[in-house]
Write a structure and sequence with these properties.
Strand content: 15-25%
Bound molecules: ligand MGD, iron/sulfur cluster, molybdenum atom
Largest sheet: 7 strands, mixed
Helix content: 25-40%
Structural class: alpha/beta
Oligomer: single chain
Strand order of the largest sheet: 5-4-18-17-16-6-7
Number of domains: 4
CATH topology of the largest domain: Rossmann fold
CATH class of the largest domain: Alpha Beta
Number of helices: 25
């Protein structure tokens, strides 16, 4: 039986529009708290230490936690306001079942869990085990990420589990593994201020990894030179010694061009290359043709900028490379990152104080979430699901026959294609909002409508949950306890601050309750997340991401422990590759030659402009959380289209006009923000909004062949001035006092 299509106006009537401003009972931040709990921010990969104030089992405010070494009390606007989610009127407090034609109605947990387990069984009996898929998330703690991987392989026995980190860290991960052998930032952030040359590629540091700004400032105060690559002059770019306004998709031009100049001028560490690397000859061969002039054509910037970048980076005494999604969200995302890392390996400036490399992790547990086995090709400890030894180790920890562990499944975008094609009939999703975050929204909607059963575990009725048959009311970060692993690879402890409200349930318990209904009670009989962590330690033992030597007590006492930490007495490993020992079996770094190639969809005469997408400081990801916090909404209420005055002038567009940004797949209508800080051939729209304001109406459903990350950072569009939109949701939001 096909599920009925969802009526958006019906959802708006039932749950209100997406913009909710003031909780019914208000916040009482001026009250005296009963308790103050040291924990961490639930949002980005910086995972700042924060203290939450509690009164009567309610979070009423925050205080900085100055002793936590990473952020030393610093917080960004999101961290400061995050506590406002807790008492939000939209908070889901009961499991909700879709009633034909009548929206959602509360049901008992027994009914909800029986229905979910029953549908998993029915679908698997009719269509085979792999016809039921699971989707996890990198905002989940390590414990929950581990549990999801085990739940998929042991209780549901499907190969098809993947997670939203597939949209985020996988290009960086693959590149780092290929060249250096390990998927983790190589250095603790305390190394950044000691570097004399810093290259930041494709990262809007000030808005998206705000605390990292402070480390870059310190470096500059110590005399470092900062190079920034971005098609937009972001706040950090405004303060750079050299800002290279690279064309989206053109970074390989800059990296290879820099290497060309460095070879010519003798700024290559040939001794290091000979002793500690392989594959240099092929790189040198490829680089030959990347003269500054040739490279400049690819990058869309003057050749002199590339030469200048080489002059800063090449001879520097110490250096640090950081990159983020700007170079990773491409159909050549892995190649972009490899070309960048080649620059580090060619100088041998890695594995020492002030010499290093980092990928700026995005989601709260972006690092840990990709180690514990919720990826389609992975088992805990960052193990390979196709490696017989790795499988045998995990089978032993789980107490199951090795043959019973499914093999590699489909990655997230492919999983949606399989739903579309009818291969996958059922889906249970936790901690993902693909209706906003996957490319080409219309395609995602069609896929969700085809599912025979769709269950969602969330604490808010996300845009994706609107399409579910059943929504299970899960837990906010502060309502449960566990660990995450921050941007540096430091495993930290999140405390339980308050109990979940009413009839909501902690996520891990929901998963264990479901496993019990699938006849696996004894393998999921944990009494607490701590027990899950104890098992995770053993599962990770001997793996690349080894947590065996950690305990919750140690993590707390030491303000976090860096993996690998293979033994209880081991100090942890803040800096990887010390003594030039790389992660490959031969101990060497493996250079990877990289040739530039065009994006899947370059601009043409019909769609002449590049659209690139990303973030703003006050909104987080799909916005399911931050669009509900009035104080954050006020900072950036609606998506804007950044457009250069030259381009705007050609089309008669002025600041504040409505513009239609249209690709071959769909369009978004937003106000124009005419700024000189963007390339005149490019427009930028942040992606945190749903429906008619979703940047992902336009983006292209093309993925990197190695990492399977979508090409969010480049597609072809045309832009035109239009009258203000008149739809029903727009009207409702205007009535609510929202700004369009
Ligand atoms: N405020 C806020 N902070 C966040 C998040 C959030 O949603 N909001 N999300 C978190 C997550 S999950 C992530 S992944 C990170 C993302 O952090 P970032 O990667 O820093 O953020 P983005 O805005 O996605 O993209 C960064 C920059 O890439 C540029 N760019 C686009 N195309 C190219 C290109 O081809 N080359 C280069 N060099 N640059 C390009 C864009 O102009 C943009 O300024 O942020 C994390 N922190
Ligand atoms: N166009 C464009 N699209 C993009 C990007 C881009 O730059 N441009 N960036 C991509 C990137 S880098 C990312 S990371 C993705 C993110 O995309 P998503 O993962 O889809 O976004 P989130 O907002 O994190 O969605 C998480 C959902 O889970 C819920 N949630 C959060 N924490 C928990 C929890 O602990 N338990 C439970 N049960 N639920 C939880 C939230 O309420 C929300 O509904 O978006 C990608 N999409
Ligand atoms: S969103 Fe990120 S930078 Fe901001 S307070 Fe939270 S963890 Fe820190
Ligand atoms: Mo991300």
């Amino acid at each position: 039986m096909a599920r009925p299509p969802v009526s958006i106006p019906e959802i708006v009537r039932q749950f209100g529009p997406t913009l909710n401003r003031i909780p019914a009972n208000g916040w009482k931040a001026d009250q005296e708290p009963d308790r103050i709990v040291k924990t961490h921010c639930c949002f980005c990969g910086q995972q700042c230490g924060i203290q939450l104030k509690v009164k009567d089992n309610k979070v009423i405010g925050f205080e900085p936690w100055e002793d936590f070494p990473f952020n030393q009390g610093r917080l960004c606007p999101k961290g400061v306001k995050r506590y406002m989610q807790d008492e939000h009127p939209d908070r889901l407090k009961n499991p909700l079942l879709r009633k034909e034609g009548a929206g959602f109605a509360p049901v008992s947990w027994d009914a909800a869990l029986d229905k979910t387990a029953g549908e998993i069984r029915r679908i698997q009996q009719s269509y085979g085990n792999d016809a039921f898929a699971l989707l996890g998330g990198a905002s989940l703690t390590n414990e929950k990420a581990y549990l999801m991987g085990k739940f998929a392989r042991v209780a549901v026995r499907t190969a098809n589990i993947d997670y939203n980190g597939r949209l985020c860290m996988v290009s960086a991960a693959a590149a780092s593994k290929k060249i250096l052998g390990i998927d983790r930032s190589a250095n603790p952030w305390s190394d950044i201020p000691k570097a004399k040359a810093i290259l930041v590629a494709g990262s809007n540091v000030a808005e998206c990894s705000p605390i990292t700004t402070h480390y870059l400032w310190q470096a500059r105060e110590n005399g470092a030179k900062l190079i920034v690559l971005d098609p937009r002059m972001t706040p950090i770019a405004r303060n750079a010694d050299l800002f290279i306004p690279v064309r989206s998709g053109g970074d390989i031009g800059v990296f290879n061009g820099m290497l060309h100049v460095m070879i010519e001028r003798g700024w290559i560490n040939r001794e290091f290359i000979a002793r500690h690397t392989t594959g240099w000859e092929q790189v040198e061969e490829v680089i030959r043709k990347y003269t500054p002039e040739y490279a400049a054509k690819i990058a869309g910037v003057p050749a002199s900028m590339i030469v200048r970048a080489a002059e800063i980076w090449g001879p520097a005494e110490t250096s640090f490379l950081l990159h983020a999604r700007g170079i990773e969200h491409h159909s050549k995302g892995v190649e972009n990152c490899m070309a960048a890392i080649n620059l580090v390996a060619a100088t041998g400036r890695i594995g020492r104080e002030g010499c290093g490399y980092a990928m700026i992790t995005g989601q709260g547990n972006g690092q840990g979430g990709r180690e514990q086995g919720q990826k389609c090709d992975q088992l805990p400890g960052a193990r390979d699901i196709e490696n017989p030894e790795h499988r045998a180790h995990i089978a032993k920890v789980w107490g199951v026959p090795e043959e019973s562990i499914p093999h590699k499944g489909l990655s997230m975008v492919k999983l949606f294609e399989a739903i579309h094609d009818g291969q996958i009939k059922g889906l249970l999703s936790i901690c993902s909002n693909p209706m906003v975050s996957l490319p080409n929204n219309a395609y995602v909607r069609e896929a969700l409508e085809k599912l025979e059963f769709f269950g969602v575990i969330d604490f808010f009725m996300s845009e994706t949950a609107h399409y579910a048959d059943l929504v299970l009311a899960g837990s906010l970060m502060e309502e449960d306890e566990g660990t995450t692993t921050n941007v540096e690879g430091r495993c930290i402890r999140h405390r339980k601050v308050v109990e979940p409200p009413a009839n909501a349930r902690v996520d891990w318990k929901i998963i264990c309750d479901l496993a019990a209904r699938l006849d696996h009670a004894e393998k999921f009989s944990y009494n607490s997340p701590r027990e899950i962590f104890e098992e995770l330690r053993r599962a990770s033992q001997g793996g690349v991401a080894d947590y065996y030597g950690m305990t919750w007590e140690r993590i707390e006492q030491e303000n976090g422990v860096f993996w690998p930490c293979p033994e209880p007495g081991h100090p942890g490993t803040p800096r990887l590759y010390e003594g030039n020992k790389f992660g490959h079996p031969d101990g060497k770094a493996h250079f990877q030659p990289v040739e530039w190639r065009p994006a899947a969809e370059e601009p043409d005469s019909e769609y002449p402009i590049v659209l690139t997408t990303g973030r703003v400081v006050s909104q987080y990801l799909s916005g399911a959380q931050t669009r509900r916090i009035g104080a954050l909404v006020d900072q950036y209420p609606q998506p804007l289209c950044e457009i250069h005055p030259l381009l705007a002038g050609k089309m008669g567009i002025a600041e504040g006009d409505f513009v239609k940004v249209e690709s071959r797949r769909g369009s978004v209508t937003v106000r124009a923000n005419v700024v000189k800080t963007i390339r005149p051939d490019t427009v930028f729209v942040p992606y945190h909004w749903p429906l008619d304001r979703a940047a992902n109406n336009c983006t292209v459903r093309v993925i990197d062949p190695v990492s399977n990350i979508p090409e969010y950072k480049i597609c072809a569009v045309r832009v035109s001035k239009v009258p203000p939109p008149q739809d029903e949701i727009a009207q409702l939001e205007v009535q609510q006092g929202g700004v369009r």
